[in-house]
UniProtKB/TrEMBL annotation, chain A:
Subcellular location: Cell membrane
Record SUPFAM superfamilies: MetI-like (SSF161098)
GO cellular component, one term: plasma membrane
Domain ABC transmembrane type-1: 102-303
CDD domains the UniProt entry points to: TM_PBP2
Listed name of the protein: Peptide/nickel transport system permease protein
Bilayer topology annotation: Multi-pass membrane protein
TrEMBL record, chain B:
Positions of the ABC transporter domain: 292-535
Protein family according to the UniProt entry: Belongs to the binding-protein-dependent transport system permease family.
Domain annotation ABC transmembrane type-1: ranges: 67-256
Species per Swiss-Prot/TrEMBL record: Thermocatellispora tengchongensis
Cellular localization per UniProt: Cell membrane; Membrane
Protein name stated in the entry: Oligopeptide/dipeptide ABC transporter ATP-binding protein
Amino acid sequence: MAGMTRRRGAYALRRLVRFAVALGVLMVASFAMIHLIPGDPVRASLGPAAPYELVEARRAALGLDQPLPAQFLGYVGGVLTGEFGTSFLTGERVGDVIAARLPTTLTLALAATAVALLVAVPLGMWAGVRTENGRRRGTEAAFTSVTGTAVAVPEFLYSIALVAVFAIGLGWFPPAGRAGPESYVLPVVALAIGPAAMIARMCRVETLRVLGTEYVRLARAKRLPSARLYVRHVLPGTLTATLTVCGLLLTALIAGSVIVEYVFAWPGLGQRIVESITQKDYPVAQGVILVYGVIVLTVNLLIDLALGALDPTSRLKE
Amino acid sequence: MMRTPSAWIGVSLVALMVVLAVIGPPIWGEAAERIDPGAVLQGASAAHPLGTDNLGRDLLARVLVAGRLSLALALLATLAGGLAGVVLGALPSVLPRRAARLVTATVNTLVAFPGLLLAMFIAVIAGLGARGAVLGIAAAVAPGVARLTQTLAASVAGRDYVAAARLLGVPRPLILVRHVLPNIAEPLILNLAQAMGGALLGLAGMSFLGLGVQPPAYDWGRLLFDGFSRIYVTPVVALGPAVAVALAGIGFNLLGDALARAAARTRAAGAAPAGAAPAPADPGEPDPDAVLEVRDLTVAFPGGLTPVRGVSLTLRPGEIVGLVGESGSGKSLTAAAIGGLVPYPGVVRAGALRLCGRDARTMPDRELGTALAMVFQDPMASLNPALRVGGQLAEVATVHLGASRAEAARRAVDRLGHVRIPDPERRARQHPHELSGGMRQRAVIAMGLMGTPRLIVADEPTTALDVTVQRQILTLLREVTAETGAATLFISHDIAVVGELCDRVVVMYAGRVVEELPVAELAGGAAHPYTRALVASVPGMDTDRSRPLAGIPGRPPAPGGIGPGCAFAPRCPVATSRCTAERPPLAPYAPEPGASTAHKVACWEAAA
């Protein structure tokens, strides 16, 4: 038991070290981004007609006139103190932009995750139970082709279709903006459909696997009621694999939120990053991309740690 | 590959896209560029089914023309990303160890990053436009391909020919190019077909966000970008490009699925209706003295397979009956049928299947769940790894006996102690993996003792355990049977163990009972040639070790390949022509008058 705890501790520590290294790499990459832009980013942003003095002043304000190592140290220091620079366009502090918009994006992403899980896990289990041992081939074919198609359609098409039908056609929900609970419905649905289909597929396969195990046979021999059998004996066995996919899906969902926010004019980070890239507002793009990167790394770390804690048979492999 | 309708749809859609990319621009190119100041920003009309744009250009023509650029950019991004991915993935196998680890770690981190974020990062650096978007999507495709290349290369690296080349001193880059890459090319190309769909959608997404193709060029994503700004006024203008993107995405996805499935086809043949079994005999009156009464049990599977045919068994209280046979003889399916656990699509038929005089098939779960205890072969597998041991025991009491949680937990600990698990309180709180194999099997037996078992069905309960633990479990089973007065059906392929534990032995061969005899007669009085061969195959203390072990020549027949006669006839040393022509019934066997009446055998030659 003690060895077990120690092994888990070592596992968690390794994951944390890996997380820290990845964070460092991410910092370097986001710092390098501006420097990798061919030519002068300030000139590119201000346009060829901008006066020389303005360009130079901007460069100095960004610290671009200093040697690279000093710039990098300044960047790291700034990030650690929440100082990401100021927007070329609006003059806002990028830190303020992030602070104002991050919660909005996270609310959307978390709501979509919750909806996707709540719909997909029961659906996948149901499909697994219905099609156990190859029975009901019709149901199986319908399930796989519907979910397969749902996975293949990108978020922006769901978004456009939902806006066209439910906002413009039927007028049930607002087409854009964030105001009141009803404004969440369409963006959350648009964002959740793809991941839900993916999780449901995964969950069905896992349910089939668990239903074939000896311990479910024994649980069936005990004549447990179906609800207890499925929720208590089958569900936990399906969670490990489902959770692993969830990590990938959550990060994909964060990226998907960029598009959904854009379509629904959702005042989050995604809408702002698209704006900043098209308008060459590099400090904002740099800061927001860094935040997205940190979110992705954090989600992966949390999933890894959760998997380590959840899996009592300690299938923790490198 | 074309077996399923979805594969057909995928192939047709992709073919349609390719045709469109080839013929689209020459046919509709001119219409797509024709500016009509008199028809700007129109909705659907007969002349313009999908409306017009801000210069009056026909949107249907533009959608049809845009297919070429959309597909070409996707192809470009896929190839660039695929190439970069293969290089990244192959690098670790030629680099020094430290550098290889660095590359692997980088790839692993990048794989976790959503493609769109990578694409946007690259697009910032490379600038807005098709070039940036293609580079960005290529960067999004590459990590996945690199990971796949790594995995595939690692699997090939262990093969003999690669090892041989390494031993011969072939340089590592040469091994990679000559031996590894050609052998992983097929799955890689398959995967790229799937990646192509993703690249197409990714590029459409970038263009839709205004980060991809810039005017005057246009792909589907750009058309969608333009159409979306007008969606509130004329929704139809977004319809064309949206449908085109959706069809292309679905087409490539279905095609990729079909290709992957075709590559890894291990599909079983379709299900056929279950083989007809003879109608079971009259159930007869229940035997008031029997715990388990099985009459004429048959288990049939589709395709005419009947692994259990006409088995009858009677077990009395306190009795341990061994059910012996080789694997495939139907003994485990007989046990499953008694427990109502025959997997779909198996069909169980029986003249009678009674537990304590009542039909087990219609018994309420509450009663069956407490009256019947089952123990399976692998104690590692038969406890749920995610749940605590105590909880798995306790639920029998809460579900079937209406016990409170505390009562049930107490009883679980008591039962665990009863099967001599040391420190039962602690063990009950642990997960199965923290218990040894023998302890787990004890816990499973304890689970059966949560109720008041009338029948214990133990299916090879000691096969997975080592010899000393085996013995302890056998002792425990004997004690439990004695103290509960239950009957135990002990299923095993090991006739020595059965001879030691059981009161009576039932021998099965190819789905039928061939002999049933008191254990005392097993060693010297077995009448069926198969039973005798089984007994002879057990090495004893007096076995002459200088001679090879006695075996039974030949193999048991497949369930489908049994003739009209005795199934053992082809392997039987004393078989006659009658044996292959006519099946011997199971009949009482009494070599001399006054011998025990419990001995039955199904053999024409046994009377001799």
